[in-house]
Predict the 3D structure of the following.
Amino acid sequence: MAVLVTGGAGYIGSHTAVALGETGRDVVIVDNFVNSSPRAVEAVRALTTAEVALVEVDLCDGEAVRRVFAQYPITEVVHFAAHKAVAESVEKPVAYYRNNLDSLLGLLEAMLDNGVGSLVHSSSCTVYGQPEVLPVSESAPVGAESPYGWTKLMSEQIITDVCAVRPMDAMILRYFNPVGAHPSGTLGEDPNDIPNNLVPLVMEVACGRRETLQVFGGDYDTVDGSGVRDYIHVVDLAEAHVAALDVLVGGHRGAVAVNVGTGTGTSVLELIEAARRATGAAIPYEICERRAGDIAKTWAATDLAAELLGWRATRDIDDMMRDHWRWQCQNPDGYGR
């Protein structure tokens, strides 16, 4: 028996593959390496004694996906593979809808054809848009403000509809803003191009690869005018995926959406200060215009994750910055493609 991890060479997928391996599961990673590196899989293998297979597959290729299920004894799936940049999705909506929805549909078809009934799906807090009440709970109204967010919301609906009529059960994890790296410093975030996420950009400024950080928006209704997010350590997030899969194996039925965050909001400027504490470096920044698709503030209500998954985040913003800085220092060129 094995767990399939789609997008398993990516940032969150690779950390989750390690966490799954630590439970004794064999892991099958599929990835097309559009925004990841095979060297991340090498790092995963070095961090776990579990069997970790790798297949280079584009999930939009349904025949190739079916061959993976024919080749390996897959009994569980954790699905990460997707385009994920909010700003890019605004510029390229067709590409985002095509990739994120087609890949999910092909995966679900292969699961149903092979009798695989346990799915943990990577969703996002972007499905809430700008929440009216904070912290935002799973019962809050949904309605995304970017094509990326809409692909996640549509994916949730597809999975819910399938679970209602077919022998499949799912945990849909709406997670907030993953940051940090594996404490070993050997596994971390390494985008192929210019980073879309805040913390890699902060660390590039801290180590001198970038002169100034752009902060998008300084006039939000927040503690200091910068956007506020619920940042979660990627290792905490990986452990939440394992907890969700264990609940499914334990007999949970149907599809349910669960927030995965710390329950604490941190502004961009507060995060910069935490990075300064971790790195000891000056991190100059400039306030720029707001970005299309961004919201002012959000953080999670986490009671359901504690109740249903038996999980809570244990690492704070200083842990996140220290671990990310360790990864940056040990891997100044990332995986060195």
Summary: The radius of gyration is 19 Å. Residues 2-179+232-261+301-313 form a domain with the Rossmann fold fold (CATH 3.40.50.720). The mean pLDDT is 95. Residues 217 and 289 are 5 Å apart (CA to CA).
